[in-house]
From TrEMBL:
The keyword Signal does not apply. It comes from the Bacteria. GO terms for molecular function: hexosyltransferase activity; UDP-glycosyltransferase activity. Residues 3-64 form the Glycosyltransferase family 28 N-terminal domain. It comes from Streptomyces caatingaensis. Keywords: Transferase. This is UDP-glucose:sterol glucosyltransferase. GO terms for biological process: carbohydrate metabolic process; vancomycin biosynthetic process. Residues 276-398 form the Erythromycin biosynthesis protein CIII-like C-terminal domain. InterPro entries: EryCIII-like_C (IPR010610), Glycosyltransferase_28 (IPR050426), GlycoTrans_28_N (IPR004276), UDP_glucos_trans (IPR002213).
Amino acid sequence: MKILITAAGSRGDVAPYTGLGARLAAAGHEVALATGEVFAPLVREAGLEFRPLPADPRGAGPAATKRELMRTAAAFMRRLATGMRGALTDDTDLMLLSTTTAPLGWHLTEATGVPSLGAYLVPAAPTGDFPPVVGGTRSLGRFGNRAMGRLSLRITDRLFAEAVKELRTGLGLPPVAPGAVRRRQEAAGWPVLHGFSEVLVPRPSDWRAGLTVTGTWWPYHDGTDRLPREVEDFLAAGPPPVLVGFGSMPADDADRLGDLAVTALRRAGARGILQRGRAGLAAADDDILTVDALPHAALFPRLAAAVHHAGAGTTAAALRAGIPSVPVPFTADQPSWSARLKALGAAPSPVPHATLTAEALTDALRLVLNDPSYAAAARAAAGRMAAEDGAGQVVKAVDSLRPRE
C-alpha cells in the first residue's frame, strides 16, 4: 500500500512517525511522511519519502496572551489545511493522521475516498478515568473528567473552524461545522491507534471500540549510530552524568536556566550534559558538557537521570532507558506526563518551569540520585515496556485493510 503519514508540531510531535514509517516500509509498504521542512533530514534518514507541510506552529512567543495564542493556532491550521491538500497524491491508498492533522484529514477522505486511520501520540477522546491531558492534572471525578474532555474537543473545533471552512470550499464539499464531522467520525467508529505505553496511560475503561493503545512508537534510530567522540570521551571520564534539556520548549531566560542547572548539578554532586534545545542552554567546564540534539536511544541508557520538560517522547525514552526523571513541565500535556512519572515512582514531584529555582532543582536531583527507589521504579517500567511492540501493532492494523479498488 502507498501510505501517507501526516504530522505537525515540534520534534517530539514528528520523530515517532519516522520509526513507525520505517516499520511500515520494512513490511513492504511505500511510505511518505508529510511534515515541516526542518524535519526533512529525519524523514529521509529513516528511508521515507518526505513531503513538505507548513507544519511548524510557532509564532506567538512564550509570553503571549491566550487570545494571541488562539489566533496564532487558527492561522496555523489554515496553512496546514492548504499543505495537506498538496501532500495527498492520487495514488495514495491510506492516510495515517496525527492528533493535529486528523480534523483536516477527515475532509480529504470525504472528498477523495482515500481511507484514513488515526495515529495519535496522546489520549484525546474524553474519559472519566482522568482529565484531559491538556488542561491540568486534578481529577474532577468521572462526570467532571468527561465533561472537561468534551469541552476540550469543542475548543479544538473552534480552532479548526476557519481552516475547515476554506478546505471544504476548495474541495467542493458542502459547508459543515468541524464538531459535526468529529461526532460523525466517532459515531462511525473511526479507528484510532495510540502510540503510547499502557505502562504510562492504561487504556481508559470507558473508551469506545476502535480506540486502541498499541505501545510507544519510537523515533527511527540506526542501531549502528555512534555518539559524537566528545560525548563518548565525556561519558568515559567519570560516573554517569545527568542530562538537562528542555527539547523544543522556548525560553526567554536561557542564561538563568543554564546557570541554575549548573548550580543544581554541582550542589547535587553530579556531572551534567546540557542539551541546548530551543531554550539555548549552554555551559562549559570539566564536569559539564553542552550538546545539540542526540538520539535518546543512544544517550539515555548511559545517564544517571534526566531533567526534562516531560514531553511525551522524552518521558517514554527515560522510562525505556530505566533512568529516573526530574520533570520540569512548561505547558500543554507536560504536567500530565509529569504526574504519570511521579505515580510510577520514577520521578519526584514536578518542578514547573514557572517556579523553577536552583534550590528546588537541587532537592529533586538529590532525591533521584540518592534514593534507589526512583531508579528501581524506572527499571521496572522499562521491563514492562520492553514487552510492547507499538509499531508492530500498527503494521498489523494496516495489513488488515484492503487497498482501494
